[in-house]
Description:
Elements: E1 3-6, H1 12-23, E2 27-32, H2 36-48, E3 52-57, H3 63-76, E4 82-87, H4 102-129, E5 133-138, H5 141-145, H6 151-171, E6 176-183, H7 196-199, H8 211-222, E7 233-236
Parallel strand pairs: 1-2, 1-4, 2-3, 4-5, 5-6, 6-7
Helix pairs in contact: 1-2, 1-8, 3-4, 4-6
The chain binds NADPH dihydro-nicotinamide-adenine-dinucleotide phosphate.
Amino acid sequence: MKYALVTGGSRGIGRAISIKLAEQGYYVLINYRSNTEEAKKTLEIIKENNGNGEILKFDVTQIDEIENVLGSWKKQHEGEYIEVLVNNAGYSKDLLMVWMEKEDWTRVIDTTLNGFFFVTRMLLQDMIVNKYGRIINIASLSGIKGLPGQTNYSAAKAGIIGATKALAQEIGKKRVTVNAVAPGFITTDMTENLDEKELKKLIPLNRFGKPEEVADLVQFLASEKSGYITGEVININGGLYT
Ligand code: NDP
């Protein structure tokens, strides 16, 4: 059995990634924070497609929860390990910095950066010992270009890009690759309040992207075929920014 963990796999891009990884033959651990119904739905779709997996509830900002849930998973699966990790869980709280409260700043930063650190650290040693692993971090156009109204989110996503490049250099020799994917506007709950009609005029491909399109890229990065790519940030934004 080959295992993959997708944080924030209950909805949107994380759901699409979970489905694609299951198609690739992975038993997928579908993490989520609170939305059990939606996480179960992801698992149902996977099973309908003859794949398999399980749902795994923990908040990526809470180290105790992570150690508890992932720790007991690991105990129950001695001799096995999670070889693909997709750090996808994300949260945005957009507002101009002049109005931003501490909580708006810390929750966004914590979800992306502490989430990456806490979850990755739990799985890293096994990947290194087994001399194979794939870590894929979902960043954003916002972390490359910076977007007004998103100083918190841009900082978090720029941070994850730095961490991706640093970690890739630390563990390349162990055949563990670390890459980031930077989507532009993708149709999910996160973007449902945006004015797509206006925004798509800015996008050369003239539309928002689909979660499945991001998932196709992640599927490739998660595969053995991507073995000579590490420390990269791959844009998927319809040509909006390069
Ligand atoms: P959604 O808002 O649709 O889904 C967010 C997912 O993250 C849910 O599964 C949610 O779980 C989970 N989540 C949020 N906070 C936590 C937490 N603390 N612990 C565990 N899980 C958590 O987001 P998208 O699918 O749009 O985004 C997925 C990723 O892609 C994010 O990192 C986002 O920043 C990034 N991205 C999205 C873009 C877009 O246009 N949509 C563009 C660029 C990047 P639950 O269902 O339980 O709430």
